[in-house]
Amino acid sequence: MKREWGRSLGSPFRFGHRRNYSINKMAYELTEQKKIGLGLVGFGILFTFLGILLFFDRGLLALGNIFWLAGVALLLGWRSTLNLFTNRSNYKGSIAFLLGIFFIFVRWPVVGIIVEMYGCIVLFSGFWPSIKVFLYQIPVFGWILQYPILLINRFWGSSG
Length: 160
Description:
The protein is an all-alpha fold. It contains nine helices and no strands. Helix content is about 75%, strand content about 0%. Its main location: Golgi.
């Protein structure tokens, strides 16, 4: 009896195997594309921080914006990024963010950074609950965020 690929019971190429595998994949698993996107977001933040430190250097700020925007697109996916920026409830944040990039390109970096920060806060305001839950999971940092009053009382009570 001749065996064909994809027909035997133990073959990984049988119909439906790939679909079941994708259901069992974890949502937070990092693919290669997401790793590259995370790296680009990190470089974007680094270049933006260096641009602010070096007296609002226009070149570093522009590179930071390009890296950050490309990283977000790779991290979320092209379609999700487009939906994020063109969603009716996010128009205010999208316009502010893109206007901030424009101000940086036309040599008004201080105004551009301020407008961009406002745009990011408005644009990603829907993600704050998820970010909050993620930050609570970090071992020491999460405890500081969850119990700030206890921490303040402990430091002020012991010094007085």
